[in-house]
Prior knowledge:
This protein is an alpha/beta fold. The chain is 43% helix and 18% strand. It contains 30 helices and 22 strands.
Amino acid sequence: MExxxxxxxxxEIIKKRAEELTFDINFDMPIGFLRFMKMLKKxxxxxxxxxxxxxxVLSGDNQEEIGILTSKLILSxxxxxxxxxxxxxxxxxxxxxxxxxASKLKKEIAKRNxxxxxxxxxxxxxxxxxxxxxxxxxxxxxxxxxxxxxxPNYIGIISGLVxxxxxxxxxxxxxxxxxxxxxxxxxxxxxxxxxxxxxxxITWFKKKxxxxxxxxxxxxxxxxxxxxxxxxxxxxxxxxxLVIPSDITFPKEVYxxxxxxxxxxxxxxxESLIDFNEKKKVIVVTANRGRGKSCAIGLSLxxxxxxxxxxxxxxxxxxxxxxxxxxxxxxLAIKGLEKQNFKIKVDRNKENLIYGIYGDNxxxxxxxxxxxxxxxxxxxxxxxxxxxxxxLLVKLWQSHKKxxxxxxxxxxxxxxxxxxxxxxxxxxxxxNTILKQLEMVTPIRYAENDPIEKWVFDVLLLDAEPVEIDxxxxxxxxxxxxxxxxxxxxELFFNNEQLLxxxxxxxxxxxxxxxxxxxALIADAPHYSIRAITTHKGKVVSAxxxxxxxxxxxxxxxxxxxEDKTRGNxxxxxxxxxxxxxxxxxxxxxxxxxxxxxxxxxxxxxxxxLIYYLxxxxxxxxFDWIGSGFGINVELSNFWIKNKFSIxxxxxxxxPISGEYTVLVxxxxxxxxxxxxxxAESIFKSKLIYSLYDTYKNMEPELALVxxxxxxxxxxxxxxxxxxKRLWAYLYGTMTYETTNDIIFKIxxxxxxxxxxxNEILDDFEKKLLxxxxxxxxxxxxxxxxxxxSTDKAENIIKKxxxxxxxxxxxxxxxxxxxxxxxxx
Length: 825
């Protein structure tokens, strides 16, 4: 109750102070700021005509003054446009930190000034953590409060929402003091034994602001002066007339909603999905952020509904890494349907996000990716495909015949070069798939050469790519002429940006959920370090990101037995919690956060070579272990097992986006760690065997087999004479599987316990069938469907497999005695 009263009092104090500061906004305006405003007027008028945007940095420690100056800027912007008779309603986005009184005060100052002095100007106010909900919206300007924090993800999202001629205003601390400020982001990087984050990313951020002069103004409120030399380039982009093809199938009304020729081209190509007689077809639309690809897909879906619903009830599924990602698509699908006079019903969730659009003869509904694999539909639309792992995309492709895909090349989502390099190669190699690729290049909201977009790409490394490889590099690799690189973040960010771009480019292509925040984490996380392999010319061919963990005190390690979470220390934490061996926390090691190889150099042993170097350095550092955590699939499992790592832990739930289980692997280096590794590996296998029927009931049999094929555990459990006779009755007599499944489970369980010993008794197909039916308890129908065989064939193969096991281990064959005299019991 006391806390609630404090919040209420704080709110009233902020409102009262904001009211006082709103009395006369022009009072005692700094001379340097007024001079800057004159320059800005010219820039606004020219940028409005050239369809470019402007960025203004307001730097200073006096937050009340920053609030007043922000209000002055946006009100002046409206006045300038009004004087030039550019009449339109203006909507500025204002994002703030709800847990900061200073941030709330600045927001309140702007809110009051706009309300009292703004004409057709309005503010849309959001907490900064809600930024992702704004995707697809357009604003004439945006104010981002960076005083307490700098999160690259938010910069990427919000900067893309401002349209041509608009203002992006960044409120920052005093320019000279900002570098060393402990932001909220940096506080979250603090882990035991590493109490002081590095101060690299903000310095990098400032450096890039100063380097990009076009349409960028940096005003120092503390000293009333500009800190940079802005450059205003006046060029009017050529207006391009949109051309709707004459031979269209979709209604013309759908095409008329397109804003660029790129969108028209996507809609036209989507017409080819109407033909259901041809083989599998996939249309892939790629673009940087802000090109309207999701909107084009939404309009295309509305056209497909019209063309297909005349003949049948149409079912369209939309999937994406999150429902939020699909809102632009859904909204444009609604516009397209309404333009065609469809009567529709729209379903929204509690957060007002659209998840379903329905009509008399059609449905467009959202499903999570893992669920979309199982659900039949006429058309599957995948939005932001780069945010999904390649293994999941392949399953979606295999499960559907007509697919429309939108994917970001470079964007805050962490562009999926894994999508570009790996998934598209699957499609290109499949002779039964017709693949059509379209790239959209024209921005929707601003000019193609917009300087603010250039700055965002540069500061967040959104366009970082692996380096080009030539014949000499291939020769070096084949001859083993490679160097092990210990890269220091300070050196990368300030003295070797090209090397940083190479490394980050490799990280991005390797992992489906890379984000701009990862760049700041690499820069400032004190326990993170970078290692790589380069050719003799310095080209990065494989790279890793490492987190040092462990070295925890005895008392702290013991406390983790009862704590829910700890900062960092993922591997020690899981071993302590799941195996209760708390002194493992005292052991030190590296967790490999990322390890990736150049996409053109896969399967050449470079990843394994890098691991070899990492193990050697770990030994030199007297580390006790080295490990990693990742979303598991068969390919990754085999890689880590090949490199002699043990799988020691697996999450009970699948990742909601990737559909993968998360596992931890470990390679012990010290004697104490080896003892614990052996215990953990043995317990993990036992836990898996006895959890397949429940927790892991739906695990893919291929993956289960890889995990079970790790180490032998326990001795084989004996079966008694009566059980042997009953087993014979199933194999050679009249008993059924269902009446003897208790014994069948026992001998199959025994077999999987001792794998990889006696691995050759059964082939992999037989093992997978036994996993599905015996270990997971699936129905005969499910088992046969999973293995793509008939139920009768599944029953016959399983019986033959059990005959092999019964004969090998228990000498049970057709001549085995079928019964027993009670006197021998």
